[in-house]
Amino acid sequence: MTKATDWKSYQRVLLPPIKNLHHLNVYREHGGYETLRNVLAQKSPEDVTTEMKRSGLRGRGGAGFPTGLKWSFMPPVDPEKPRYLCCNADESEPGTFKDRQLMEYNPHLLFEGILIAGYAMTLKACYLYVRGEYASWITLMEEELAKAYDANIVGENMMGTKHSMDIIIHKGAGAYICGEETSLMESLEGKRAYPRIKPPFPAQSGIWGAPTTINNVETLACAPLILEKGADWFAAIGAEKNPGPLLYGISGHVNRPGVYEYPTGMLITDLLEIAGGMLGGKKLKAVVPGGASVPVLRADMIEGVTMDVESLKEAGSMLGTAGMLFLDEDTDMVAFLRRVARFYHHESCGQCTPCREGTGWMENLITRIDDGEGNLRDLDLLLDLCDQMEGRTVCALADAAAWPVRNTINRFRQDFEKRCRPATWVVNA
Amino acid sequence: MPQVIIDGKAYEFEGHPSLLQFCLDHGIELPHFCYHPSMSVPANCRQCLVDIGAPARDRDSGEIQLNEDGEAVIQYFPKLQTSCSHIIADGQVVHTARTSDKVKDAQRDTLEFLLINHPLDCPICDQAGHCPLQIQAYKYGPEGSRFEFRKVHKPKKVKLGPRVVLDAERCINCTRCVRFTDEISKSGQLTIIERGVKNYPITPPGVSFDEPYSMNVIDICPVGALTSADFRFQARIWEMASTPSITTANAKGSNCYYWVRDNLVLRITPRANPDVNEFWLPDEDRLVYQQFNENRPNGPSLQGDSGMSSWEACMQKSVEILKSSGKQMLFIASAYATVEDNWMLLQLANAVGGEVAGYISHVDLGHGDGWLQTDDRTPNSQGCERLGIPPIDLPLWRARIETGEFKGLYILEDDPVASDLCGVESLMELDVILHYYHTTNQTLPSSSVALPAAMVAETIGTFVNDSGRAQRVVPAKVIKGTNRTLMMQMGLSRADRHGTPFDRWHNESHYVDCKPSWEIIPMILKKLGVDTVPQGPRRIMQHISETIPSFQGATYEAMGLSGVELSAIDTEVII
Q1: Complex confidence, ipTM
Q2: pTM of the complete model
Q3: What is the CATH classification number for the domain harbouring A265?
Q4: Domain boundary among B254, B269, B292
Q5: Is A428 part of a structural domain of the chain?
Q6: Do B42 and A197 count as a contact with CB atoms less than 8 A apart?
Q7: What CATH number should be reported for the domain holding residue A205?
Q8: Minimal Cα–Cα distance from B551 to chain A, Å?
Q9: What is the pLDDT of residue B483?
Q10: Lower Cβ count inside 10 Å, N or C end of chain A?
Q11: B42/A194 CB distance under 8 A
Q12: Structural domains counted in chain A
């Protein structure tokens, strides 16, 4: 029973403090792959999915969709048709670096989660799509995966049972858009990473048109824990509607940035304390709680706000990936937004008109304001552009680009107005 | 039958139509760029957004919820939907820009975005005048632009291949061209490179966009980004007249438009006909446009003079030759000529009592691709066969001509010397009457009487394609001299655009002094003392359709603009 308030006594499970846990033998010494063995021997696939549903786990990739429910969307098994699991490790959201930590320090937990998920959905192959920039962790995982193959944990008749499953590690080529599940599938198929129209959803038509489930790294890493310790254990950790351990990626103007594992529902203020407080003892100005695309919160808005879906929604933001960015009182919000806008401009795939054209226009406007050349009307134009982009594209990148602009301007309007040229000029007659 | 309510009006539908196609089919205009009926739906331009809802149902009972006035409560999708990718379901309610300000705003916003990085060089753009972006920007777009920055610059005048030139700045990334090469022609020669706002289509490194169907991307490009290397900057669209017709570079008879300005054919574009060529046209059918303008004769000629004899003198000479040769006159029909012309030739041969050798077959084995290119490079060999004219067995007839069996040769719209039917030497002894298109015709120097014949763009007539479809052509450009039948068939507005002999600005030198063979032959017959009935292509075809079973039903009225399928026949093929 670990509630967020008892965080000081929290025992880490996703990233336990064990040296060299990424080695297969160390992982096995600490009970690794025993859950998988038990699941294969004792549980039916339906039981596993039910257990996942009961645990209340919600996807850790940003959208927060209930994982067990997602698994249950897979159509009944058709022996003629392949079906796939896909693990989304294309972690590219600015301010998010938690999956990297899992892949570096506990890759076998991820593999075990993948194998359990594969068993639950009766499928034989999982593509692990890793962000290309994570080259050294890809090498590490490839080595460890080879060891797991040698130990017959993965592959044909794994662990001596009649079940077989392959894990294929695929290296991305460096595009933010590939983190969007449908364009990730396009990219896997060797095509240009343009997001697909939904419906059909991946569960009906995913990789190569086959039923596919896509889960985030951290989500899949939770699966062995749930099946080992039980859904009740998991559901009791952290926030009620969004339970479980969570990797908080803390960055920005804090003394000890990094990835911290704690229950969901932690107070933002507690997390700031955990990260060693603000750098140089300065005052907090703003927090971006879930990666660059979620709305920014002013320091005065975080009182009592906890890191879970419900509480953050109420506060006017989102949990996203729990990649938290703390900004101190000296932060120039215009420059901050300029950088964020530049990112989305650079990463828009260019498929849909509003996003392709809008992201660039936004960056132009914000750059002009930042350079002191902007006009007050530019702020209203920026807000207009947000309206023109939001909800009008195939994927959510346009939304992700519009939210920070809208909310940063609305919540720090004075910072922006100060940088703009005055609306009226005094004319000397 | 299931129904859908669009802008307050109920429509019944069958099957699973996409909303956009359904609207277009029912005359409801929805602006769009990326959608093309024969290709996949990427929904990337986001222009065809509409508001879609359905009657709300009670969760437990499944009953439709009613409001206080007893009307169904409509539950709308939270976001606007792209109509191209939306499959209509029974009972849905759709609002277009006509009934929804939300949709109107969204369509205006998308156009504002599309135009910010578009060069707006309409005054020098080939597409201006029939540009979907231009038209829809005027109809649905914003008044002006709020964009105050430097536009994105991309490569201009990129030669993608021998026939297609790209202006990447004009591109709106609809991906129609890429989808065409992926899904229709399957050459895969185009792809999108770069990312985001720098995107544009191009060939992969080391690849030239040279597939035989490359120019179709020019037609489907909704802006002026893809232009024809030949037609680029040649004419404004509103200066030209387009005439629906068919192409003659092969036996497919693909439907097309001839685009004419000042009596010159400047380009040939496809005309949609689902039964023949759908929306497409191979490049070979388009590149022949110059043959209507160049190397055309300057009037009829008699041997010895330099090509400026009168029609009257030539007719007289022809009659003399025909009379003196009599039964020793050999007639050669033509797979380039219309059914009417070939039928007329048969009447002439009949009147004189001469023999008809057949038509010269122009088959280029392996040229056909099972789609819109055929091995047969002539448009009307089926038409000849159906008239009972066989293909000429070249060695056999060559031998017969060389033995001196014949005294005269009457050639309809072909070139026996170039086709190796007879050598120049063997023609020295013969009186040759030639109907010809071009001054490059190699039989021309050996001919006693050379009569310029009207080509497909100048005549009226019928062609039968390789699958037995009879299709008619109408004149796209004017010939010298007055022919009431041709003038009646000319597009009504055409004379205004291109001048009549009474307009001071028209260029006389662009008028070719030729006549359709169905006009020439009756003139000769009349001089021979034979009155031909019927006269004129329409009546000839009416007569043919009534008397020859394999042409049953092929009247001008039945053919209309899209042709009629004739009953199948066995054709003789000589290679």
Answers
A1: 0.94
A2: 0.93
A3: 3.10.20.600
A4: B292
A5: no
A6: yes
A7: 3.40.50.11540
A8: 49
A9: 84
A10: C
A11: yes
A12: 3
Q: What DSSP assignment string belongs to B310-366?
A: -HHHHHHHHHHHHHHHGGGEEEEE-SSS-HHHHHHHHHHHHHHTPEEEEE---B-TT
Under DSSP, the state recorded for B304 is T
**Distance to chain A for B169, nearest Cα, Å:** 13
Q: Are residues A176 and A296 in the same domain?
A: no
Give the residue, B65 or B337, on which the prediction is more confident.
Answer: B337
A297 and A391 within one domain? no
At B502-519, the pLDDT tens digits run 655 567 788 899 999 999
Say if CB A214 and CB A121 are below 8 A apart.
no
Per-residue pLDDT tens over the stretch A404-428? 999 999 999 999 999 998 876 667 7
Number of domains in chain B: 4
Instruction: To the nearest 10°, report the CA torsion of A310, A316, A321, A324.
Output: -120
CA A283 to chain centre: 28
| Domain end point (choices A235, A256, A280) | A235
Q: Verify that B454 and B485 share a domain, yes or no.
A: yes
A300/A346 same-domain check: no
Question: For residues B136 and B223, what is the distance between their CA atoms, to the nearest angstrom?
Answer: 11
* Cβ-defined contact of A357 to B41 (cutoff 8 Å): no
Do A165 and A299 fall into the same domain? no
Residue A71: in which H helix or E strand, if any?
Answer: helix A67-72
Tell me which chain B residues have a C-beta less than 8 angstroms from the C-beta of A394. 43-44
Does residue B147 sit in helix, strand or coil? Answer: coil
Longest Cα–Cα distance of chain A, Å, equals 93
Inter-chain CB proximity B112 and A388 less than 8 Å: yes
Domain membership of residue A102 as a residue range = 4-235
Q: What's the CA dihedral at A184, A190, A196, A201 to 10 degrees?
A: -70
- For residue B245, tell me if it sits in a domain: yes
Question: Which chain A residue shows the shortest CA-CA distance from B174?
Answer: A351
Can you tell me which residue has the tokens 């597409």?
A: B127
Same domain, A202 and A215: yes
Mean pLDDT by 10 residues, chain A (429 residues): 78 95 96 96 95 96 93 94 96 95 96 97 96 96 97 94 96 94 96 93 95 97 96 94 95 97 95 95 96 95 94 94 96 97 96 97 97 94 96 95 97 95 73
Q: Are B527 and B316 in contact (CB under 8 A)?
A: yes
* Residues of chain B above pLDDT 70, percent: 95
Which residue in A has a C-alpha nearest to residue B79's C-alpha? Answer: A391
> Across the interface, which of A346, A357, A394 has its CB nearest the CB of B116?
A357
